[in-house]
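note to self: dont lose this again. the chain is below, predicted strucutre after it. 323 aa total, dont forget to put it in the shared folder this time
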Amino acid sequence: MQPARIMEILDVVEKAAIASAEWNGKGDKVAVDQAATTAMREALNAIDFAGRIVIGEGERDEAPMLYIGEEVGRGGEEIDIAVDPLEGTNLCAFNKPNALTTIAIAPRGALLFAPDTYLQKIAAGPAAAGAVHIDKTPAENVAAVAEALGKPVGEVSVCILDRDRHKDLVQAVRDAGARVRLIGDGDVFGAIATAVPGTGIDLYMGAGGAPEGVLAAVGLKAIGGVFMGRLRFDLDRDGEEKRCRAEQTADVDLDGVLTMDMLVRTDDAAFLACGVTDGEMVSGVSKAHGCVTTESIIMNAADQTVRFIKTCRRGENGSVRFD
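---
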C-alpha cells in the first residue's frame, strides 16, 4: 500500500473513533456501533479508490451499511477492505479498556472473503511460530509457548474470550498450569497482543468471529507472529445457511486449517487501529484545550513496520500540547 493510501485510511479509523467516543460510558451499544459505522462509511466514501468490503458488519440482508460485498469510495485503485468499525462495542458502551476502531486493506482479491460466522483461533508471537498448532491440545500449545519463550509454564498467560463455550478450554489451560486472562470482547486485540511485548499475553485461543480473525491475521503478518483458524459453522445458529453462502464466495476448504497466508494472500497489506478507550497498545480519544487527540497504530506488512500516530484536531480555537 502506498503511504498516501495508508494515511487516508488512518483518517477513516480516527474519525470513527471520535464518533464512537461520544458514546463512551453511556451504556448504549446500538448507538455507539451505529456512530462508528456511519462515520467510517462516510469517510471511506470520500476516498478516490474502488473499495470492496470483504469483512464487514454482516451479510447484505443483515447490515444496512459496510456489509460484505459493499462497494465504497469514489473510484480508482481496487482495494479489498476488512472492517470492524468498533472492536469492542461493549467495551466502549461501558467505558472499559481496549475498544478500537479497526481496518485492514490489501489489493483486490488478497483478503479471504470470510463468512460472518465463528472461527476457532490460535495466535502467538513470532518466537512460537512453528511450535503451536490449532490441532494440538491446549496443554501441548501452552508447553510449546513456554519453551519458545523460555519461561515456566506457570508464567504463560493465555487470553480467552469469556464465553460459556470456552469453559472446557479455560479449565484445560488451568489444568496445564498456565494463567488465563479472560476478556469480555475485543479478540482482534487479544490475538495481536500476543506479539506485542508488555501486554502480558503470550497465547490466544478460542472461538470468535471469523471477520475479526482476518483483521488479526493482517496485523500479525506485519509485526510477526503466527495465526491459524478453522471455521466453526456448528457454533452458529445460522451456520447451515452461512456455509452455503461461503461455498460460493470463499475459495478455501471450509473444514480445513486456515493459515495466516490463506487468510491474507499478500505481503502488501496493512492493519490500522485507533483507540477509543485507553488500552495496552494505544490510548483512547481525549479532549482538552479545544483539541481532540487520538492515538493509532499502523502495522504494515509490506515493510514490516509498526507506527504509532498521535493526531491532534484543533478545531477553531484549540491549542496543541506536546506532553
